[in-house]
Design a protein that fits this description.
- By secondary structure, this protein is of the alpha/beta class.
- Helix content is 26%, strand content 23%.
- The protein contains twelve helices and 17 strands.
- The strands form two sheets. Strands 1, 2, 3, 4, 5, 6, 15, 16 and 17 form a nine-stranded mixed β-sheet that branches. An eight-stranded mixed β-sheet has the order 7-8-9-10-11-12-13-14.
- Helix 4 crosses helix 5.
- The N terminus is likely disordered.
Length: 417
Amino acid sequence: MQRRFPVFAALALALAVAAAPAAAQTFAITNAHLLTPGPVGEVKNGSVIVRDGRIVSAGATVAVPAGMRVIDVGGATVTPGLIAVNTALGLIEVSSVDGSVDTKTHNSGISASFDVQYGLNPASTLIPIARLGGVTHAVVMPDYDDSDQERELPFAGKAALISLGDGVNILHRPGVGMMLELGEDGAARIGGSRAAEFVQLRQIFDLARQPPRDEYPFELSQADVAALKPVLAGTMPLIVVVHRAVDIQQMLKLAREYRLKIILSGAEEAWRVADEIAAAKVPVLINPTSNIPSNFDMLGASLRNAAILKAAGVDIAIGGNDGGHRVREMRYNAGLAVSRGLPYAAGIEALTLAPARIFGVADQLGSIAPGKMADLVIWDGDPLEPLTQPTAIFIAGREQPLESRATELGKRYTPAR
């Protein structure tokens, strides 16, 4: 049976999609404005065939197999699911309630070995809220506990990639990166100076390359040293939170010296050294709205950071406005970057294929292409416009509920007319 939906009839589309069972994974989306990075690109009137949760084919001249469930979206825009970076989804509920925050540790024997995968909560109410912004996967990153000023913590721990599918097991891939913070905050944890921090990092890396020993300096444990082995082998990227241009240059030098695979995060002054970052083939995770200096590290912050980096050939991914409650605003941030010179297609890519590429899952996620997971979002307008909303969301071909705690509370307390 074929069903047809008007372009902006979000409610009708949501009801029609919800009519099928949640486990349905074989269907065709037709009459769609496909908007995706990769070979398929932008197709004004195309189709996507999904079988068993994977994309079989997509494009303008795709034949729909007989008997397949058809969702005719009436010209609505269809994109890959968005991939959020720099999040704490699944690790935080209420930031002011310590018992609901699992992003960090104050254990003096756990630094690099801290692993967010063990604290993930699939039932977090923040996951559906992010999903309603079109987010289907997210990179969950650890943070630092600075309550004990005497505790030196060079590394925050290991990040993980999660699926925002409505289910029990949300872990998609553990150990997608090791977190390290430089700049004012990083230096405050190690020796009180950037100069001390870079010296100590070299000492730690040299120690980690040596045979195991019973004790290590700098509050490093054997577990921490073992966790750093993949970083030094180049199989796990080092995600470096850094802001000032000169600190970025120092990190690029350190990465060359130790042959590290690094990802820059924050990087408000990255535009000043964009050519050096591009030459080093180092990707950057940014928030394009960060243009007001919150400290001396960010005096050169600019709304054109994303556009300048992309023009220089840097692979960029755009994040939301915090790690939990405002993750879904990442697409608004991409829209702002587009308004400041980033090409529109690059804005879509920075939310989808670029983060997949940066974190090593571009063969599975990030674009509408044969063989990839059917993470698809149907929109009632331009995805980079704030008033646009998803009318259907699929993760691995499974339809997701268009509800969250926020929408349920809205229904409960909206006065009857």
